[in-house]
Amino acid sequence: MMAWIDHWVLALLSMVLLALAFGLLILWVSKKFKVEGNPIVEQINAILPQTQCGQCNYPGCKPYAQAIAAGEAPINQCPPGGQEGIKKLAELLDVEVLELNPENGAEEADQVVEIVEPDCIGCTKCIQVCPVDAIVGAAKQMHTVILDECTGCDLCIPACPVDCIIKIPAPLPAPINRKPKPSLMHTVREAQGFPEALS
Amino acid sequence: MTDIFLIFISAAFVNNFVLVRFLGLCPFMGVSTQYQSALGMSFATAFVLTMSSIASYLVNEYLLQPLGLEYLKTLSFILVIAVTVQITEMILHKSSPLLYQVLGLFLPLITTNCAVLGVALLNVQKQNSLLESAFFGFGAAVGFGLVLVLFSAIRERLEMANVPPSFRGLPIALMTAGLMSLAFMGFSGMTS
Fold first, then answer.
1. DSSP bridge partners of A174
2. What structural domains does chain A harbor?
3. pLDDT at A174
C-alpha cells in the first residue's frame, strides 16, 4: 500500500516538475524572442477619443489606429475626435491637416446620453449595443447610464424600442484622458493602507 | 546507415502517416484547399514533427523509463508537443515575420495534429534510438508534406472540374483521398 502511494506521489511530482520546466523554458524563450508591437499604433490610439462608436467604419478605435498606421485609412474619419484630433494626428504622423470627412458624420459638442427612466421598459437592448458597458440594468428592470463611463457614441439611441434615450451635454472634458492603469500590486497595497515606504 | 534510410523511407512512403495509417487527417482535409498554404503547413509540420520526436524520445528515455512511469507517456508527449509548437511559433515570429504571417493559424493547429503524437508513441513502441526517432519523425513529416502538397494540387484542379453537384466540395475530396490512399498502398510490403 505504501509503495503504491509512493509511486503515485512520484508520478504526480515528475509531471508537475516536467510542466514547470517547460513553463520556465517557454518563459525564457518568450523573453528572448520578444516581438515589439508597432509603437505608432499605440500612439495613434492614445489620440483617438476611445468612444468605440464605429463612425470611422472600423469596429473600434484600435482597429482604426491600426488602419491609419498601415496607411489604409486617412486621418479625417473620426467625428468624436473632431478637428482637434485630426490636428494632433497630423502632427504625430507629419501629414497635412484634413477636413473631417462628412461621410463619417459631423463634429458635435461633447454629449452623453441619459435614459428617461419612467419610460424604460427594461428590454436590455441598449445594454447589448453599448461598447463600453456604461449602461446597467436587468431584464424588466429600469436601466440607467453611468455618466462617467458613457463616451457619447449614440449607438444605444437607435437600439431603444421606446426612444427613451436622450442626449445631454457631457460633464467630462474632451478628449477623455485615460490614465495608465496602475499595477495590481500597487492598488492592492493602497487598498490595504500600506505605508508608502514599504512599496 | 541503411537502417536509418529504411526507417526514413518506410515512414515517408510505405507506412505513410496520412494515407496508410490514417493519422493527421484533419489538417490533410483542412489545409489542402490552397497549394501555397499546404506548402507552408508542410514545412511547419516537418519542423515540429522532427523536434517533438527528438524531445519526446529524451523525455521518455531519461524521465519516464527510469522512474517506471511509462503509462504517463501520452500525457507527457502532449505536453512536449505543445511546448515545441509554442517555441517554434515564438522563434518564427521573431526570426521570420513573413513566414509567420503566411502560416498564421496553422502553426498552433499542429499541436492537435494526431500524426505528431502518433510518431512520438510509435517511436516508443518500436523502441527506436535517438537517431532513429529523429529520422522516423522527419520521414513522417516528409510523407505528410508530400501527400499534403500533392493533394492540394489535385484539389485546386478539382475546383475547376465539372463535378456532379452532389459530389462537390468535401465528398469528391474524400474520394480523391481514398484513391490516393489506394495508390500509396502499392508501396506496402517493400519494407516492414
1. none
2. 39-104 (1.10.15.40), 111-169 (3.30.70.20)
3. 52
**B87 closest CA partner among A20, A31, A17, A37:** A31
The answer, yes or no, to whether ipTM is higher than 0.90 is no
A14–B91: do the CB atoms touch at under 8 Å?
A: no
Nearest-neighbour CA in chain A from B5: distance (Å): 32
Distance from CA of A7 to the nearest CA of B (A): 9
Sequence-separated (6 or more) residues with CB below 8 Å from residue A124:
A137, A138, A139, A143
Cβ-Cβ contacts under 8 Å between A and B: the total is 41
Prediction pTM value: 0.59
Contact B69 A25 (CB under 8 A): no
Cβ partners under 8 Å of residue B145, min gap 6: B41, B42, B43, B45, B46
Residue A115 phi/psi, 5-degree rounding, is: -95, 130
